[in-house]
Structures are given as structure tokens and as C-alpha cells.
Amino acid sequence: MDNLDYGIIGNCRSAALISKTGSLDWCCLPEFDSSSVFAKLLDEKIGGSFEILVSKEYTIKQRYKKNTAVLITRFSDGENIFELHDFMPRYYNESGGYYAPPEVARHVRHIQGRPKFRVKYDPKLEYALGETRTHVKRNFIVSLTQTEKFDTIFLYTSFNKNAVVEGREIELIQNGFFLLGYNEKILQPTSRKIYLDLERTKVYWLNWTNRTPTYKKYNKQITRSAITLKLLSYDKTGAVLAAATTSLPETIGEVRNWDYRFCWIRDASMVIKVMSDLGHKNVAKRYLQFIIDLIPDKDEKLQIMYGINKEKKLTEETLDHLSGYKGSKPVRVGNAAYEQKQNDIYGILMDVIYAQLIKFETDIENGEELWGITKGIVWIVSRHWQEPDKGIWEFRTEDRHFTFSKVLCWVAIDRAVKVARILKKTRKLEAWSQLEKEIKADIYENAWNDEVNAFTQSYGSTHLDASVLLMESYDFINAKDPKFVSTVKAIEKNLSNDGLLYRYKNEDDFGLPSSSFTICTFWFINSLFKIGEEEKAEQLFEKLLSYSNHLGLFSEDIDFKTKRLLGNFPQAYSHLALIECAINFSTKDNEERILESMRE
């Protein structure tokens, strides 16, 4: 498999990746950031997988059940046909909550003939550290490890358990199932119960997507991206993950490999803004509660990222026994970037708080806490906005005065002023408005470079950076302002490579990147659209969509030469930016139709 040809299934507690041939190659249980049960994704030899093997006469096709997170893999040799319906149960239960156990269900549907398959069931608990032993018991198959620490996983099935474990051929004459569970079941699973779980899970997703507006253009892509973002949200605390994986490299064979199974304040806040624009209010409310719970002390600075259960310490380790994706070492768990200082997070968070207050003004819970956070953010920004930081791209070397960070410091104060007005808290307005003007003037004076005719990556620099394209999105500058237009043109000239964008071209801690950061290309397309180059923007958008995998999913990066997907997968950042672009094109289309009808 040369591309990241995987589908994601999940239940807002954990997730699993299944290859286009039906192999379960990545799964962490009981939660997103737990150690892996299957990690073939990170080591093809020892990582562990759960595969459905058929003879070469079979063709295999994969799709999602429309508007759901149920993944269907179809095996057919023309005469004999069966399907694998993979899902993680999630549905409303009678007590008013959700049933979302740490389980992967594989419903095997008999379609035609007498298809034959074998199973390769090879769990490797605890990131394949030490030995995992598998035993067939009367009611289930149990796998356990006790080398590093004790852990177990249970497999229930309607098929012959010995045949499954030994990889013997199984002939399918009726529907069957596999149920992989972190916990031993109290009631024995049956085919009927698994089918019922499948139908209930389908209904959950159909109801959820039904709350997403329908768009004339790119509706399919918007819906799939929205479901993917929902799959990366963690119900228990309201956290939103950057991606479901760790250590998928930005470039094959290099060392830019990071663990993304955490909640970055920046990524998550951007996701929440898009999700609430799509009408998914509960995701936004849970996330705001997550933030409130993180800030008990009024003078406590926000970290750039947290664990999904609100952990503040995310110690980074390397798993040297794993060879890495396509041999790209190291495999890391944890992320040392949690200790970095990035001043942009305050503005991004304030933007979300402001957006939620606008949207749900009469329905906002925790208004007092949010006002407290607003005051705290202004206090921190007013004392630290003039200091350098690591920036949005997390440079691990020296701190700089990054333009994006400064713009977002301005956003923090601008939105705080607006929040104060909404909440009728006028005492702070004069001082805050003065600070907002001061930061704006500082940016215009120091970030603009006459030599390159653009806003640059950092103060006094001639280097360009895709992040400055967001100056317009955050209302710092008007799209038609000559300075913004010339910045977009300069970025196109310097950072575009066959329609794909570099984040920046100056060498960082690891040398020049050889892959495009997917979100940057979406930002660029959006900027072209805003400055009036709409046709060109849509052509680039169509081209970019063609680089998704077979299910319409995107990772973090795209290789400039081969156009293969790279980096952690699926990437929340990429899908939120896709939604923003698609809505722009669709809304524009709608506005034009309204004008046409008015002319008639």
C-alpha cells in the first residue's frame, strides 16, 4: 500500500484504521491515546493486524455507508460475494447517554454464493512491546501480554474460533461477526445483537449528519469531512484530536514524526468554529467546558496542547523496537511540544468564545467562567504580546517575532472588546481598545516588507509564510486591501509548487520540507477566492480534492512529486479547511443564483 488508503471508524472514544483490503492496521483501546492493539501501520512485521484474506480472484472495493461512519469492504470473485461492515458502536441508550464501548465490530454479510476467506488475527498489545499470547477459550479468544505491563483483549466470533486463530479457510454460508472488545462481555454476543448494534449506529450517524446543512456544491465532501471531524472528538471531556495516529512521517525516511493524539488548542478551536457553523452545537459546548476545566487558576497560562483527559504533562518517548511507517523512524509517543510557548493560541481561543457568544447568546452556559477566561487572556496577552515565541509551526530552535502570532494577539484583544460589549462589561473597554490599536500598528510597522511587497513570516524577515494568509480570515485586513492582495501574489510566486503550498521555504530545524502542508493549500485557495480570483481558486480546489484517498480522506501532508498522502491521518486541520473552502464556493454559487433570479 503506497498511499494512506485507509478508512477511519470510531465512536468518539477511540478510533481504528482499516485498509482498502479490509485489514485492521491501527487501533488503540480503550481510548484514542491508549497503547496500540494493532500497529501494522507503524511496523509491517511486528506491529500486529486483523486481516481478512481472500484468493487473488477476488476484487475488493471499499466505501462508506452514505452519511455514516460505517465502512463497507466488498469482496467479490463474480460468483461469490460478501461484505465486511466495520464500525465502532455508538448510539443513544435508554438512560439518555451514549452507548460507546471500547469495541470494534466486524459484521460479515453473506451476499451470494459460497465465498471463502481466511483470517489473520495477530494482536500485539502495548505497542508490540514484549510478547502477546493468544488463547482459545470456550466463549471467546483472549490475547494477553505481561512483559512490560499486563493487558488483555477479547475477540468474540460466530465462526470457528480455532479456524480463526490458526488462519484456516472459512466458508461463508450465512452472516457472521467478529467483536473485538477491551473488556470481557457479560452477555455473550450474537449475530443478531451485532446486527442490531450496526443498525443503531447507522441511525446515530444518519441523525447526526441530518443536522448538517445541505450545500449545492461539494456537499458529499463537506459531509464526509464533518463526520471525520466528529470522529476525532472525544466525548468524555470535549477534547478534539489533531489526528488519530502517531508518527506517520511528513516525509518518508525522515524524522519529522510526531504523536498527534492530543488536543492542540489551535487546531481544536478552529475545528469547533467550523463545526458550530455547521450547526453542531453540542461539540462546541463540550469543548468550551474542556477549556474551562483546564484553567482553574486565573493567572495560569494556557499550554498549546493537552492530553484528551486534560493531562498537562505529555512526556515524549521513542519506541525504538518499531521500524516506523515505511521504515521512517523514530516512532514517538507523547509530544515534547507541550512545553513550547506559542502566543497565537489566545487569539484563536478568544475567536471561538466570541463566535459561540454570538451564535448561542441566550443559550450559553458558563457565561461567567467565559468572561473570567476572557479577562485572563487579555491579562496574559497584554504582558506577553511583545515577546517572541515558537510560532504556529513549532520551530524547536530560537524564538522569533512571528507575524501570525502577533496577528492572533491582536485577535485576542479585538474579540475580547467585542465579548465585553456583548456582556455589557464596559469598564475595561477603553484600555482594551487602546491595546488593540497598539498591536495593530506594531504589526503594520514591523511585519510588512517593502522589498518583497508582502507581510513576511516574522519581523524583519524576507521569508514568506502561508500562515499570514489567515490575516484576512481573522478580520485583521480586508481581502481587497492592496497589501493583502500583493501578499497573496508573493506567496503564490514563492511558495506554490504545482498548485501545492510550502508552509515556508526557509530551512527549519530539519532542513527544507519536501511535502506540502495540506491546510496551507486550502488557505491559499481561500485567499485567491477572497481577492477575486474565483475561477482559478476553484480549479485548484478540484485538483486538491483529487489527491484525497479513495474515501475522500486527507492526512496532514501531500508529497510534491508523487502526490501521495503523508503525515498523521486523518488530519482534523485538513478537513476543517476543506469545509471552509467548499462552503465559500457553495455560498458564492447560491448568492449568484439569488442575484440571477432577482434580475429576472
UniProtKB/TrEMBL annotation:
Parts forming coiled coils: none
Keyword Hydrolase: yes
Protein name (Swiss-Prot/TrEMBL): Glycoside hydrolase family 15 protein
Alphabetically ordered keywords of this record: Hydrolase
Span of domain Trehalase-like N-terminal: 8-138
Lineage: superkingdom: Bacteria
Domain GH15-like: 217-582
Organism: Maribacter arenosus
One MF annotation (Gene Ontology) recorded for this entry: hydrolase activity
One Pfam family, short name: TREH_N
Gene3D superfamilies: 1.50.10.10
Hydrolase as UniProt keyword: yes
InterPro entries tied to this protein: 6-hairpin_glycosidase_sf (IPR008928), 6hp_glycosidase-like_sf (IPR012341), GH15-like (IPR011613), Trehalase-like_N (IPR045582)
SUPFAM superfamilies referenced in this protein's UniProt entry, alphabetically: Six-hairpin glycosidases
